[in-house]
């Protein structure tokens, strides 16, 4: 069986480097540090200035790239991708980076995000004779480039991206260029750095810079195209201006706490979310515990602000993936128990505050609370360091459908009763915004909390995964 998580699923990770003799090795290390953003497949494409060399497979970075495979990825520039599928099923054919041949020469592309009009573009291209090799939305970009009448690759890329809508942080590799692009709204993060040897590096988060000894330079700006070649680095702004709509969930849940994204520290913001929660939703208790690992920093903030001691009351296994043998059905809540275990001496006889960063369906939260009760917790108070999630995301996060989201279909009192807690409280939208007050990068996308979507989409966009269910055979 596949253990289902009650969390939104990671999107994807991208990493790129130009002008390094160890380009493939550094890309491997960067992808390794960004594994939290996608665990389904991973791939690297490199170039020696003449050809593109690609290897991709299903699974985790460390299991895919052997030393011999890395050596085959020759050249001084490379891009890499870790994938979690938000559009297109989880098969090898959908692993990125995508590589194609065209009149513009060989092109490879790695994409983090989701294009909300890709289905319509794909239908049009297929009617005009295009044959797609994958079911991912990213492939429409290279098809648009290949069909462009522009003879200059940069102009063809700009023309193609002006036809798509939605979220994209892109890395494009050719024998001549490494190009980094961020959509005009800036939904997904993309940072730029420089190594001591002069190599230019791009990544989804700065944690990939630490492992590759890269100095953070700046964020790629929303609507910016950064072009790197043998002449140096230059920026283009080929898109119409848009209101920045940075994904607030990156701070709440996705990004690693040791990263800087959108120009700020994830650790700092996450801790402030916990502090804000303690200020407005206090409760008398003996101990504060997080649901690890993503709520750990928010719980520290709550503990420091409230003065209630922080403890590790839940221990999470980091080796949970797929299991095909479930034990006797009498072992209830197997999925939660194999992922979490309670430290009884921390909670037994105590009034416990449980901090979590988000609640989707509520099923895992209910099982965790039951485990705490069974371990002797006297009271359980549930606190969430984000507003109620009431709507799906169409910009690159796999959040359940509206009818599956417990906060979209139940009142707070009903959720409290379902979870069987003594009290429950979410952080308000206003307090969440206070945690990022003074942020210089512009506004945030909070559509999953408000249903106010900054980029329009067709109703069927959220069902694109189900449209490709005919691909039922693993490669």
Could you explain how this protein is built, in words?
The protein is built from 17 helices and 23 strands. The model is unreliable at 322-327 and 461-475 (pLDDT under 50). The chain is elongated, with a radius of gyration of 23 Å. It is 28% helix and 24% strand. The protein has 475 residues and is α+β, with helices and mostly antiparallel strands.
Question: What keywords describe this structure?
Answer:
six-stranded antiparallel beta sheet; seven-stranded antiparallel beta sheet; elongated; alpha+beta; 23 strands; about 475 residues
Quick overview:
This protein is an alpha+beta fold.
Helix and strand composition category: alpha+beta
Q: Treating each run of at least 4 consecutive H or I residues as one helix, how many helices?
A: 17
Strand order of the largest sheet: 3-2-4-1-10-9-11
What oligomeric state do these chains adopt? single chain
Percent of residues in β-strands:
15-25%
Gyration radius over CA: 23 Å
- Anisotropy-based shape: elongated
The end-to-end distance, rounded to whole angstroms, is 19 Å
Q: Give a short account of the largest sheet.
A: 7 strands, antiparallel
Mean pLDDT equals 89
Q: How helical, in percent, are the residues?
A: 25-40%
Tell how many strands the DSSP assignment holds.
Answer: 23
Enumerate the spans where pLDDT stays under 50 for 5 or more consecutive residues: 322-327, 461-475
Active site: 12 (nucleophile)
Pathway: Purine metabolism; IMP biosynthesis via de novo pathway; N(1)-(5-phospho-D-ribosyl)glycinamide from 5-phospho-alpha-D-ribose 1-diphosphate: step 1/2
Function: Catalyzes the formation of phosphoribosylamine from phosphoribosylpyrophosphate (PRPP) and glutamine.
Keywords: 4Fe-4S, Glutamine amidotransferase, Glycosyltransferase, Iron, Iron-sulfur, Magnesium, Metal-binding, Purine biosynthesis, Transferase
